[in-house]
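re: the backbone from monday

yeah here it is again, tokenized this time
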């Protein structure tokens, strides 16, 4: 890659972008065939929130004739295709930057693709099952406490859904971003730890922007996982630096400690279930009395 001219770089970039768009188009066609069940999945948080708030019937409203068509048959398949085609798109990104890396670093292509796509999809699942549901119920409940009847249009609902889903999914890529910066020698674990206070502040600000509600609970629901992801990224960059220097991480004692912690936590959960009448639930906080 270093021996390529500037125009050759642009040609390679254009090729990778075209291939990524072709994969996105194939995923879009596949998503279009399942538009109806996909919409039932997407609208389920709204139906669930309206049902819990006592709104009858718990349905979204269509104000304009073209709303349902443009959302269900165009925008929704496009959103689904982004998640489905994410491994292929990430492969094209890696194929563009990998020629400029060392041979031992190019071996990380498959872990990079799987980790990045996995984090992106995990972020979407976190937003769908936790953050978006409680944020939506909070927003609708505020109005109802002040004698306001919620009438949620399909367009406004889907716009909020997309913003939260994509925002959280992109935030979950933070460990990969940190790893890439270390891989390209633009950052180091020592630098990241030394400036972690500024990173935490920036993360809280970003969480406040993408959080759909103004309350502290939902802010922490976004900020805490984001901070954990930051330090996961720092740890991954530390492992990369150790590998460059020919050193190994002491996995055995660390895994031994983690196993002890997991055993203690499992024992406490069993004690809470067996003697204090707690049980697991399919909704937040997942462990209730």
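seq for it, each position gets an aa:
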């Amino acid at each position: 890659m270093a021996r390529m001219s500037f125009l050759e770089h642009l040609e390679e970039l254009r090729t990778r972008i075209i291939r990524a768009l072709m994969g996105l188009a194939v995923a879009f066609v596949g998503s279009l065939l399942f538009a109806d069940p996909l919409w039932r999945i997407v609208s389920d948080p709204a139906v669930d929130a309206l049902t819990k708030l006592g709104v009858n019937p718990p349905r979204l409203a269509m104000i304009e004739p073209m709303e349902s068509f443009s959302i269900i048959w165009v925008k929704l398949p496009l959103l689904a295709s982004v998640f489905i085609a994410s491994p292929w798109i990430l492969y094209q990104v890696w194929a563009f930057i990998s020629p400029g890396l060392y041979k031992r670093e190019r071996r990380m292509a498959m872990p990079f693709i799987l980790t990045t796509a996995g984090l992106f999809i995990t972020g979407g699942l976190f937003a769908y099952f936790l953050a978006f549901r409680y944020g939506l119920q909070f927003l609708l409940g505020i109005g109802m406490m002040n004698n306001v009847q919620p009438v949620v249009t399909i367009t406004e609902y889907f716009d909020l859904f997309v913003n939260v889903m994509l925002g959280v999914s992109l935030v979950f890529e933070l460990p990969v971003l940190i790893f890439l910066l270390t891989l390209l020698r633009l950052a180091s674990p020592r630098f990241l730890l030394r400036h972690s206070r500024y990173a935490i502040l920036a993360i809280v600000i970003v969480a406040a922007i993408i959080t759909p509600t103004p309350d502290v609970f939902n802010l922490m629901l976004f900020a805490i996982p984001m901070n954990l992801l930051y330090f996961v990224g720092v740890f991954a960059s530390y492992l990369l630096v150790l590998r460059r220097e020919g050193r190994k991480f002491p996995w055995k004692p660390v895994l031994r400690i983690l196993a002890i912690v997991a055993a203690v936590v499992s024992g406490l959960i069993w004690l809470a279930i067996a003697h204090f009448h707690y049980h697991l639930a399919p909704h937040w906080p997942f462990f209730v009395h």
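The CA atoms of residues 118 and 151 lie 35 Å apart. The chain has three domains: 1-133+150-172, 173-249, 251-289.
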